[in-house]
Hints:
Layout: H1 3-28, H2 35-56, H3 60-69, H4 74-99, H5 103-123, H6 131-151, H7 156-172, H8 179-203, H9 214-238, H10 243-249, H11 252-264, H12 271-290, H13 297-309
Helix pairs in contact: 1-9, 1-11, 2-4, 2-8, 2-9, 3-8, 4-7, 4-8, 5-6, 5-7, 5-11, 5-12, 6-12
Amino acid sequence: MKKSETQLGAIHAGFSYFLWGLLPIYWKLLNNVEAKEILANRIFWSFIFMVIILIFTKKWDLFLRTIKGFAQNKKQMYALTLAAILISMNWFTYIWAVNNGHIIDTSLGYYINPLVSILLGMIVLKEKLSFYQYVSFVLAAIGVLIITFSHGKFPWISIVLALSFGLYGLVKKMINVDSAVGLTLETLVVMPIAAIYMLFLFFNSSSSFLSASVGTDWLLIGAGVATAVPLLYFAKGAQKISLSLLGFLQYIAPTLTLILGIFVYHEHFSNVQLLSFIFIWSALTIYSLSKTRLLSDKGIKWRKEKRATL
């Protein structure tokens, strides 16, 4: 792959994580709206926006062919339905957490996410881990336990976010469709439920959409764009860069979220939380380096052979 394409891929992927890191600002603007209604609007308008994208990019026929193909491939259809449920659960937890003063917890969840993916790969896909990857997993587990015992309760927001997104990534491995088509299909699965809920709120005079303010209406509609744009940039970037580079870039989002939580929204960040984050940051550093020649099994073997020849 050409160097210019790799650089462009890194810019696209980095921009997607940058947007994800700033999303709490967007949801905070809607803190006068219940999380369930925000989620319903996010799903509904994401679907509408993606349909427009498919039409303009001339992928509508591919979208229809993919739907017809599910008749012969029920496994993909079930996987897509599960993916839609998991990402909806992730979105709802994130929105609720941000608007209820738990931005730091969401940051912790997305720091843990790569390590949850390791565990799922080991259990479900029978992937073998290197020594340093085991070390990173143990360090992350210690970080989670520190928060659990210090607060006297399980950090459920962080774990739900990490597990739902980790499982979503695992299920997505089973779905072999175009990224834009896949996102449209995922939102299509849960869109009817979202639309029914929006109508229910409207006819019961409890809807914020079309009744609160014009600004709120546009923010709810814009939730679809705010959801789809980072995912589309991510898909474009991921195709052009290595998995290890993608792994480093993914820490942009939770880092920005952590900074927002502490310095912009002034959430309490205790010494215990700092200690827990240090364990998890150490785990992520070791995990990231385990993908390089410095700490990989092949790298260790190469260094031993090199020393033997000296």
